[in-house]
Fold this sequence. Notes:
Shape: globular
Distance between the termini: 31 Å
Helix content: 10-25%
Structural class: alpha/beta
Mean pLDDT: 84
Number of domains: 2
Strand content: 15-25%
Radius of gyration: 22 Å
CATH architecture of the largest domain: 4-Layer Sandwich
CATH topology of the largest domain: Metallo-beta-lactamase, Chain A
Largest sheet: 5 strands, mixed
CATH superfamily of the largest domain: Ribonuclease Z/Hydroxyacylglutathione hydrolase-like
Low-confidence stretches: 335-339, 343-362
CATH class of the largest domain: Alpha Beta
Amino acid sequence: MSTFEGHIREFPDIQVDYFRTTQATASRRPLACFLSHVHSDHLVGLDTLRSPFVYCSMATRALVLRLEKYPCRINFAKRILEARKQTYKHLKHLLKPLPLNTPTTIELSPGNRIQVTLLDANHCPGSVMFLFEDDHKAALYTGDTRLEPWFVNSLVRNPCLAEYTAGLRTIDTVYLDTTFIERDVTFETKAEGIRELLQAVAKYPHNTIFYMRAWTFGYEDVWTALAKALRSKIHVDEYKMRMFKSLSVDATGGPQTALDPVAPGLLGFTYANTFHDGCLTMEEAHNGTPVRIHSCEKGLGYCSAIRDPTHPIVWIRPVVCRLPYGRGEVPEVGAGGCGEDLNKETDLEVYGPDEVARLREM
């Protein structure tokens, strides 16, 4: 769970991944804001933000604008609400997308400029790190990042970081998530975790149906691996499909139209005038064969395939890591500690001093 309050000491005129007023910003409002990714613990206060611009990746912008809070989307699905209520839709003109690996100069005020570069964070669709620079200082904000060996090597080769790896410049501060730094645990790589999962599901009979508890963004590689290994589509609800379709400029277009590399594999793409299916579907059966993998909405009582008592169901529950000496597992409460962004049991708002003061006045 992110507890960062958004302040970059080297660049006090900006705020990152936290959009409420704090003691530091009460007398000095930020001139620009930055959003690293779509997980809810990094969106604190964004729904009430009125200014300034918020810079993010193209994929993050697309996802954020279509986010719906859990009660609203469930009530719409049950036809209690007549229209969708997209929480951040009003920020359409405030969210400004930037390309990755492209140093971009932003003028905060006359004569006050910073350069920002978005770097892939290896976390979830659209997730980025921010490299903030001026002529004298540099700070790297990682957001939530998965620093596996291959990924660290890719950063070393990134041309936007070449002057630092060559020793010509120094990054003054790295703002790094330290959620698990005090725990005596070792994290598997994503590849190791997926390999273990595939070995486990391969032991079950061919008529077994698997329910993958994918309640937030970040399980796309797991979906892809399961779909390929089991030769099956993945049944998702309409809301999940809508969210991932936002990652394509045109859901029937080619890979070049995708806002994130995961989009063609999930949604499909057109090649040589032929549409190639992605692994996600809203149908419980595909070509007459029942879908073996499900990540559909649990708040509506699941789909008929999961409710059918004659189907052998295996529930896949992700874990963050295993504790040493057989002391159990750390359950996944959402990638990045964000809770259940796609499937929530409850919807909890945490209010700051400004909101409490307004409630008292009322």
